[in-house]
Amino acid sequence: METTGIIVNINKDTFTVKVDRKSSCGGNCVSCKGCPSETLFLQLKGKYKYSIGDTVILEMPTKNFLFSSFLGYIIPVILSIFGAILGYYFTKNENFSVLGTIIGLILGLILLRIFFKNKKQNIKIKSKV
């Protein structure tokens, strides 16, 4: 997967790259009435001969992107279902099933946050535009 970004800061061997995320409509906001897009700032390590203001192409292996997306969607769902089943199994009460769902969802999001915070970043600067 590739996207473009602009180098906004350089510190020794660390680059800060500004990336404008595309909206869900793929940047054609007229069709969806102007949905918001988000700006990300990525910290990338490496020895490149670029300067501030250069537009670069960032590359991430597709399998890593798909795996991260899969985890981001499936882990909260699985833990929510598991929490709902456990909540109902132990109490035979639907209110505790809902509570178990919420706890499972929150636990899943916390686990993902920890996992992605400690995961090695696989984004590299491919070339200059």
Outline:
The chain has 129 residues and is α+β, with helices and mostly antiparallel strands. It has helices spanning 62-91, 94-118, and strands at 2-11, 14-20, 39-45, 55-59, 124-128. Helix 1 packs antiparallel against helix 2.
Task: Please provide a written account of the structure.
The structure is a single chain. The protein has 129 residues and is an alpha+beta fold. Helix content is 43%, strand content 26%. The protein is built from two helices and five strands. The chain has helices at residues 62-91, 94-118; strands at residues 2-11, 14-20, 39-45, 55-59, 124-128. A five-stranded antiparallel sheet has the order 3-2-1-4-5, with no helix packed on it.
Q: Provide the succession of SSEs.
A: EEEEHHE
The main pleated sheet reads as: 5 strands, antiparallel
Total helix count?
Answer: 2
Radius of gyration: 20 Å
Q: What is the count of β-strands?
A: 5
Let me know the average pLDDT.
Answer: 83
Summarize the amount of helix as a percent range.
40-55%
Give, in spatial order, the strands making up the sheet with the most strands: 3-2-1-4-5
The global form is: elongated
Poorly predicted ranges:
none
Distance between the termini: 16 Å
How much of the sequence lies in strands comes to: 25-35%
Structural class: alpha+beta
